[in-house]
Amino acid sequence: MKPADDSKVNYKDLVQRGYNSCAAEYDTSRQREAGPELTLLTSRLRDGATILDVGCGAGVPIARTLSQRFAVTGVDISGEMISRARANVPQATFIKGDIMSVELPPSHLDAAVAFYSIFHLPREEHPELLRRIYRWLKPGGYLLATLSYLNEAPYTEDYLGVTMYWSNYGLEDYKRIIEEIGFTLLKTTVVGHGYREEVQASEERHPLIFARKA
Ligand SMILES: C[S@@+](CC[C@H](N)C(=O)[O-])C[C@H]1O[C@@H](n2cnc3c(N)ncnc32)[C@H](O)[C@@H]1O
What we know:
Blueprint: E1 2-3, H1 11-29, H2 39-42, E2 50-54, H3 62-67, E3 71-76, H4 79-88, E4 93-96, E5 109-114, H5 126-136, E6 137-146, E7 152-159, E8 162-168, H6 171-181, E9 183-191, E10 206-213
Parallel strand pairs: 2-3, 2-5, 3-4, 5-6
Antiparallel strand pairs: 1-7, 6-10, 7-8, 9-10
Helix pairs in contact: 1-4, 5-6
């Protein structure tokens, strides 16, 4: 783990290039079926509901599972991930771009999901990202997102053969930020690492927050 504090390095570019390089390995390492955590959301939505998948990766299992009943748009900064997502989930729409730069209409989404992606953005952007999602949601729309338990200053680490970047606030900070924006926190639960057990058997845990726009 190395501090990511070099002002000459563009860390978003590093994330983008990193995922372009490891997209194939990530895709084959990821679980093929979504866990029960998605039903928190899917049980509350009508068929055809509009869902944004933030940092959708290769689209499996999240966008693919959601696309069975809903109209899914995935956004990802990595072109390689987007190519894979288009092949894996032809029925969904995918946009290549930084989630902080894409322009989406206000109040048009029934839900937004973000699995294992927010921690790759610089943490000072996390409140603004959550505000953007809030603006894109319809009143009563839902957010289902993995966040972090630990407050972690930006760092880089080897990951699937590339150098990758992470940064996080702690869970209590996220709860405060989410409620200040106007979300009602409905539930906080926990998910594992999301990889196939043959690939990683560790006890890694991520908090999953489920919130609703007022
Ligand atoms: C660990 S993968 C998770 C992918 C997917 N959500 C899943 O559950 O498998 C993180 C993804 O977030 C994407 N990502 C990172 N920073 C992003 C940004 N600023 N905007 C959009 N996507 C981003 C990466 O390219 C990568 O595909």
